Amino acid sequence: QVQLQESGPVLVNPSQTLSLTCTVSGGSLTTNSYCWSWVRQPPGKGLEWIGCIRYSGTTYYSPSLKSRTSISRDTSKNQFTLQLSSVTPEDTAVYYCVRDLGVGIGYDYWGQGTQVTVSS
Predict the structure, then answer these.
(1) Residue 88: Cβ within 10 Å count
(2) Are 86 and 69 in contact (CB under 8 A)?
(3) Which DSSP category does 18 fall into?
(4) Are the beta carbons of 87 and 39 closer than 8 angstroms?
(5) Nearest CA among 45, 40, 48 for reference residue 93
(6) Which among 35, 53, 75, 81 has the fewest CB atoms less than 10 Å away?
(7) Cβ distance 79 to 24 under 8 Å?
(8) What is the mean pLDDT of each run of 10 residues along the chain (120 residues)?
(9) How far apart are CA 23 and CA 59, in angstroms?
(10) Which pLDDT belongs to residue 68?
């Protein structure tokens, strides 16, 4: 059973960098075929894909967030990390890490989600 757990600050000041880590257990970040993604859901809105890091280490980002987003990984700890820079209150959301089966297929494992609020 694959399990994912997000960790990181729940309150971020505007213009600062949001940083979240996802720890994966029961599965490996380097297993062929999967992409490990970050998605978010702002209050009252739908789910938004932020980006992912493939088993190979290649990263992909949402075009609308690409200029502010960086996803990296530490395979020795089986963790991957999201950094979102220059945040504004519009970045307030529940952030999830997920195992991504591919475009149009969906996500099969989810973290529990972490509420991040951008506010001074």
Answers:
(1) 10
(2) no
(3) E
(4) no
(5) 40
(6) 75
(7) yes
(8) 94 97 94 91 96 95 97 97 98 97 88 96
(9) 18
(10) 97
